[in-house]
Specification:
The protein has 329 residues and is an alpha+beta fold. It has a domain of 103 residues: CO dehydrogenase flavoprotein, C-terminal domain (Enolase-like, domain 1), CATH 3.30.390.50. It has a 5-stranded antiparallel beta sheet with strand order 4-5-8-6-7. A 4-stranded antiparallel beta sheet has the order 9-10-11-12. The chain has a 3-stranded parallel beta sheet with strand order 1-3-2, covered by helices on one side. The protein is built from 15 helices and 12 strands. It binds flavin-adenine dinucleotide. The site of flavin-adenine dinucleotide (FAD) has 32 residues, from strand 2, helix 6, helix 7 and strand 8. It comes from Archangium gephyra.
Length: 329
């Protein structure tokens, strides 16, 4: 690891101005929990000249719920806190469960919402520094290589998947992130547009600018009758990255589904909405057969790689079970 300068930011403005002094050759990066950043620095994937510690900024660790405005999470709120915060548990079950099932208790105690959304892919080709030094380009090499955990949809240009599992729930809830730039200027970007297909040649897989800070995550207030569920399917129950994860948000009128959002993570470069399946559900009464049809529609069009076709039936089963679990919540 090369040596670097460490600065404790005093405010959002201070952090933004320090980040703005970076360049492509002399990058300046933010550090929240440091769980991903330090891994990347140790692996030689990132070599910043300055690290801006944003944990010293006050006011970015709040959780607020308002019946009109919805939920606001400061970017420094940890995953552990999201998983047990009463308003999140009560009204945004899929997010609370996604946070609770990410990583390990130790990681969740340090990892922040902002850093989680900005973490880089877990693709082993991406994280292998010698591959980077060789000027690696993932697509052709991974397509023929160890692609067990890679994308089964939209995998023509990249086969890597976004690592964040809370992002799957956030996409299903229609959440947005607040980005703050120079002069305190903020912009609100839907999480579905914030995340970009991972790219080894870029320094981020999001639309954040080098001189912006992710300051808040916002979720609209749920309509009456909203229910949700989340499931992360790994190879084992203890901490592990998922084979796939699914978040379902249903707005129910008695037993009839009025609106449906199904988001699927770790199966496409960014969390993918199962639009066909959602259409099938709307206006109908949910039963086992309808859930089965929706799950079949959700995996329609999958284009698995040489070693990950096993993900397709697993995803289908998880969509079916999560839709049923959301309606029963
Ligand atoms: C064993 C293990 C298992 C894991 N399993 C999961 C899992 O199942 N699901 C999952 O989602 N994750 C998982 N993770 C990853 C972990 O959750 C992330 O590394 C963590 O959430 C990153 O958050 P952080 O606050 O530590 O970010 P940092 O490491 O501090 O930052 C990550 C990136 O975001 C940038 N950044 C951070 N905050 C901001 C901000 N506010 N504004 C602008 N830029 C910012 C940093 O510059 C850096 O590039 C796992 C990790 C480990 C070690």
């Amino acid at each position: 690891m090369q040596s670097f300068e460490w600065v404790d930011a005093e405010s959002v403005e201070h952090a933004v101005s320090l980040l703005g002094e970076g360049s492509e050759r002399q990058p300046v990066v933010a550090k929240a929990g440091g769980m991903d950043l330090l891994d990347l620095m140790k692996n030689g994937v990132m070599a910043p000249r300055r690290v801006v510690n944003i944990k010293t900024i006050k006011g970015l660790d709040g959780v607020r719920f308002d019946a009109k405005q919805g939920l606001e999470l400061g970017s420094l709120v940890t995953l552990a806190r999201v998983s047990r915060e009463p308003e999140v548990r009560k009204r945004f079950v899929a997010l609370a469960d996604a946070a609770e099932h990410a990583a390990t208790p130790q990681v969740r105690n340090a990892a922040t919402m902002g850093g989680n959304l900005l973490q880089r892919p877990r693709c082993w080709y991406f994280r292998y520094d010698h591959f980077h030094q060789a000027g690696g380009d993932d697509v052709e090499r991974v397509r023929e290589g160890q692609n067990q955990y890679h994308a089964i949809f939209d995998n023509q240009r990249t086969v890597m998947v976004h690592a964040s599992t809370p992002a799957t729930a956030l996409v299903a809830y229609g959440a947005s992130v607040e980005l703050t730039g120079p002069g305190g200027k903020t912009r609100l970007v839907p999480v579905s547009e914030f995340l970009l297909p991972p790219d080894m040649k870029r320094s981020t897989d999001t639309v954040i600018a080098p001189n912006e800070l992710l300051t808040r995550v916002r979720i609209p207030a749920p309509a009456a009758g909203t229910k949700s569920a989340y499931h992360k399917q790994g190879e084992r129950e203890s901490y592990d990255w998922p084979i796939c994860d699914v978040a379902v948000v249903l707005q129910m009128d008695g037993k009839v589904i009025r609106q449906a959002a199904i988001a699927m993570g770790w199966v496409a470069p960014t969390p993918r909405r199962a639009a066909e399946a959602e259409k099938l559900l709307v206006g109908k009464t949910l039963n086992e057969e309808l859930a089965r049809q929706a799950a079949k529609a959700a995996v329609n069009g999958a284009t698995p790689l040489s070693k990950n076709a096993y993900k397709v039936p697993i995803l289908e089963a998880i969509v079916r079970r999560t839709v049923l679990a959301a309606a029963a919540a």
